[in-house]
Q: What sequence folds into this?
């Protein structure tokens, strides 16, 4: 899809206000983004800096892939004291499988940005996204960082653009709750290009929290959002989500902040899912009344990651047998004869067997930008939601010929 | 691919002889296959019977999917005493998610076949493959079984054809070791249609073994073959592999028999992998020198099930970054800087980093019917091999529009 317009539920609008300009809507945050020469073929923007006027408490979560990009090691090192003031991000080359030189390059990016911004190098975080196995062109990066301080502005769009790879649209969001603001930019396109260093997310806030609290809240939100999109199946070598809080707007209750952070992360995750390579629609899988939340999540993920389900959704095919098979493979034990399945609220399965429905009518109803598959286990009170996209001709096309 | 011609390695030919006519090459085994009316649209053969003159010791392995087809429950029940004399198989409808009526239908198939063949109903095994959620048309099945005894012959080809669904070619093999013969037919098309009740395999032998030994040997062979093709990712609701031994040719050493059984199962598994919907090539992933065999297998499976690797293979794209990312996601810890990767014996990665190679040359060498990806961990002595196929436009086409 070429873009994704989120429509916040009513309860969201009652407790928070949607703002424009994402990270730059946050007090004290400036950003810049430009073309320096990494994406030499496309000449698209490839370097971003996000800067906070004040030192932030910060936390991050990283990919679980055993093969990690060099920038992740450096960012983790720099976050040991829970403090950061800026993030520098390059796109086009992921700086993964690059050995000692890769680590040195990532460190140099921090040093160069720190010098330019007048910070300690340990207070700069670094991320790179793009092709695996190539070295960063440090000469053009060095040149590009020079003078970037003067390019910092209150407009987030250049930075949001500069972190993209094969994404079709910028992923930005900002919300205000009481006096505090959370703003974030994100990149990634579903489960579908680990070698493009799938998912990066930079969340800034002017709320005041310790790095320990930030870490705890970030984990909660990520588990509900980025960990529930089909990214997980092919976890990238470079996935990273960073949360930085400069405290300029003061305190807010942890509960309120968590709700707002959840909303920010879920909306960004949905943008990532729907921007899956070749995707024509967003698929949401709602599992309800499972024995536990953990089991509901496992079941939802099993469905969203099934190639067969994804291909059927592309073909607007109400093929519920594939859903039954997918949940059967999840490892969760459930009562087959209690399972109900709905596609966009139309009943397809009742008590584990085919309900009476008109396949043509259901197929027609599937031709939307958002398909909701609801699975009711009728066993307990555990609910879980996962998001993904359909599997299409364009997915194969893009991924068969990306590298060469 | 439209067919698959296996080329046995020299060591195989030294210890066993390849025979024609699969199951019917085994002493005392007869088979029949015909169209009875389940596949009413295509009019293709849809009912098979394989019959042994003498009661067999028998063992089977079943899908691990929590949602199981009715025939699996009935076959498991009938195999409790380790004895069987015939198998009846229908194709077109899987008899899955069909509740009590499904169980009754599967039992009736056994009773009808038993009556026709003059056997006890408990000595007949049953399997069905095809669409999930529909009931079997028992009227045409009943009519079809009547008189099938007279159609039994020493030609396996009708039975081999009648168990197929979307398969492109019959999957048959027979080998002779010393005086004994193993013959098998199989159906399935890779990981890619659980709702077509993926994989069925019927192996017959005239060797003499107890059902306990058969079970043990079958498990060993299945773990090396069917459990190492990408079927595992979307384990079907109806997977079943049966081994029946009538003892008519007498005894053989367990070691010799195991080698022959391994060969039979691996060749059939490769046929299934290469017949994956839309596949243009067989992919073999050889992981060598891992810390253990178990880890080598996990790593090989992680690569063979990656959509990104499969799509790259379709595009003849030597995209080794996707291999590194896939093994990184396997859950196995390994030394990244010791990894070597080869495509068809051409070195792509040396010590975890890009080797010097000509992408165009490697890409050209990938345009074969069989691509071998070798991953050398240089850490231990564990080896493991997995097989699969590429991800193509035709895969999406077939699976987007199968049901409706």
A:
């Amino acid at each position: 899809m070429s873009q994704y317009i989120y429509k916040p539920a009513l309860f969201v609008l009652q407790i928070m206000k949607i703002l424009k300009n994402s990270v730059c809507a946050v007090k004290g945050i400036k950003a810049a983004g430009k073309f320096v020469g990494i994406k030499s073929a496309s000449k698209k923007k490839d370097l971003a800096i996000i800067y906070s006027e004040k030192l932030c408490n910060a936390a991050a979560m990283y990919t679980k892939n055993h093969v990690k990009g060099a920038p992740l090691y450096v960012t983790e090192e720099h976050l040991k004291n829970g403090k950061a003031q800026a993030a520098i991000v390059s796109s086009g080359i992921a700086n993964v499988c690059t050995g000692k030189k890769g680590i040195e390059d990532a460190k140099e990016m921090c040093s160069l940005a720190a010098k330019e911004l007048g910070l300690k190098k340990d207070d700069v975080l670094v991320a790179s996204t793009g092709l695996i196995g190539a070295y960063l062109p440090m000469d053009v990066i060095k040149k590009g960082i020079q003078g970037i301080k003067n390019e910092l502005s209150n407009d987030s769009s250049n930075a949001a653009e500069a972190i993209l790879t094969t994404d079709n649209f910028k992923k930005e969001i900002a919300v205000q709750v009481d006096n505090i603001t959370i703003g974030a930019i994100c990149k990634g396109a579903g489960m579908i290009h680990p070698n493009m260093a799938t998912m990066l997310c930079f969340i800034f806030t002017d709320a005041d929290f310790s790095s320990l609290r930030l870490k705890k809240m970030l984990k909660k939100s990520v588990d509900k959002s980025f960990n529930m999109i089909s990214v997980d199946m092919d976890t990238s070598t470079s996935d990273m989500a960073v949360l930085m809080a400069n405290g300029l707007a003061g305190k807010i209750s942890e509960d309120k902040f968590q709700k707002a952070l959840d909303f920010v992360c879920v909306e960004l995750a949905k943008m990532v899912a729907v921007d899956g390579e070749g995707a024509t629609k967003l698929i949401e899988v709602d599992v309800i009344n499972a024995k536990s939340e953990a089991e509901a999540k496992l079941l939802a993920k099993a469905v969203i990651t099934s190639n067969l389900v994804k291909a059927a959704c592309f073909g607007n095919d109400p093929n519920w047998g594939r859903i039954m098979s997918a949940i059967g493979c999840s490892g969760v034990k459930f009562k087959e004869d209690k399972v109900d399945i709905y596609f966009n609220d139309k009943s397809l399965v009742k008590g584990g067997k085919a309900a009476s429905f008109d396949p043509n009518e259901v197929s027609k109803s599937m031709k939307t930008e958002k398909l909701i598959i609801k699975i009711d286990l009728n066993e307990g009170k555990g609910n879980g939601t996962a998001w993904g996209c359909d599997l299409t001709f364009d997915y194969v096309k893009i991924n068969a010929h990306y590298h060469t």
